[in-house]
Amino acid sequence: MLRKIYLAIALIAFTYSVKAEGYAVNAQGAKQIGMGHVGVAINWDASSMQFNPGALATIDAKYSLAMGGSLIWTETEYTSPIYENNATDNPMNTPFYLYGSAKLNDKLAVGLAVYTPFGSSNIWGDNWAGKYLVQEISMKAIYIQPTVSYKINDWMSIGAGLNIVYGEFELSKAFPIQNPADGSILADGSANLSGNTIKYGYNIGIFFQPTEKLNIGISYRSQVDIELDDSEGEGKFTYPSSINGIPDAMTEALVAGYKANGATDGSFTATLPLPASLNVGFAYQIDEKWLVSADVNFVEWSVYKTLEFASEDAAALNSLNKREWDNAMAYRIGAQYSANEKLDLRAGFYYDETPVQDDLYAPETPGANKIGITAGASYKLNDKFSLDAALLYAVGEKTTGYDTNSKSQGFGGDYKNTAIFPTIGITYNF
Question: Which helix (H) or strand (E) holds 260?
Fold first, then answer.
């Protein structure tokens, strides 16, 4: 019984953080956000290290610095014929980016990127309908990427970066304390799961400039296997000190029984593959005022079939859960209009597919096919320094999903996701 109650605990921690859509953070550059978060075929500044390392060597400036941050508000609404409506009460999240690069000569450039491609929180509350699946979850991932790029000739350059990834998460959920006589729920306990780790991957790219007006880019981000050993994952359980209507001695006996069956503090090990992504883009300078660009992102989510957690000292953490996610695509398009020598205006649109199957759907990973609408601007204070701003609004289609893996008799219903975030940044090229 306890294994059934806790099956979702460890599962939630990382699956939430790695979604190709939904709460993945598309906020790695204010200029790019304004154009639908395109960037694979654009070489404005040092932000190319994230979008396409191959473009870094083609930047005109000897030194380039770009930094900024976003304020993100997200909400997921849940409705069901059985339960009253629920919605998350999420705090504001603040992803950031920092890029710096230098050209060592006409062909060779190096740089360092620090950015947060994942970083979200989801607070459903203590007493919502799915409290036994999740009440609150938060995570962040910080990528540190030293990068090198080389210009082979006038029309082609290549680049590569090492991804040093720090990931951190925390999850809280309730579990029922049941009457052994009739199975009725007497009270709730709580479980908390947390962990952090550092892992490695790579980001490579190639950048083509076949004409003065046309850029073509291809980049590839490697799969990273997030592996927690028993020193990195920790589970803790909290029980009520008393339960209304029963003697304290009986409460103590119930708690002792749960602990004896593995619902006790302990460590765990786990492995989760973060899928590779292939990104292709083009950018075309129509004239001195108009630039258009489009990207296609392919994310190999089909590698995520199951997720297994194992614990030697807390049997309730042991789980093997089926996911069978699908590969997913994202399509992005944007335009920039240079109104004058100081002001650039931008707009963009994207469509982001979800990898989550409707019959393996859970509130910890409330995926949906999404559209995003963006706008942005840059104002040049001088020839070297600009202020950048962008605004993104994303909305997911209403999704009806049920988790047939769930041990709560296929918990499900209708979900609706929305997100809005402004971004402010600066660029300094000299």
Answer: helix 248-260
What pLDDT, in 10s, does the model give residues 116-127? Answer: 887 667 788 888
Q: Give burial (CB, 10 Å; 0-12/13-18/19+) of 370.
A: buried
For residues 94 and 120, the answer to whether their CB atoms sit within 8 Å is: no
Rounded alpha-carbon distances, angstroms, from residue 314 to 1, 31, 231, 321: 14, 48, 14, 17
Most confident of 244-253, 298-307, 348-357: 348-357
How many domains in the chain? 1
Separation in Å, CA 355 to CA 224, 328, 369? 18, 5, 9
Task: Please say whether the beta carbons of 117 and 100 come within 8 A.
Answer: no
The C-alpha atoms of residue 177 and residue 429 are separated, in whole angstroms, by 61
For 153, half-sphere exposure in the C-beta direction (CA atoms, 13 angstrom radius) is: 4
| Beta strand extents in 129-223 (DSSP E only) | 136-151, 156-178, 185-208, 214-221
- The pLDDT assigned to 24 comes to 61
Tell me the DSSP string of 311-346: -SS-GGG-EEEE--PPPEEEEEEEEEEE-SSSEEEE
Residue 167's contacts (CB-CB under 8 Å, 6 or more residues apart) are: 14, 17, 118, 139, 140, 141, 196, 197, 198, 199, 226
- Most confident stretch, 6-15, 210-219, 394-403: 210-219
Which secondary-structure segment (H or E) carries 251?
A: helix 248-260
Instruction: Extract the tokens encoding 291.
Output: 């630039």
Give pTM, 2 decimals: 0.86
Residue-number span of the structural domain to which 398 is assigned: 2-429
The CA-to-CA distance between both ends of the chain, in Å, stands at: 64
CATH code of the domain covering residue 134:
2.40.160.60
In sequence order, the β-bridge partners of residue 387 are 379, 426
d(CA 417, CA 365): 11
Tell me what pLDDT residue 81 has: 76
Judge contact between 417 and 369, C-beta under 8 A.
no
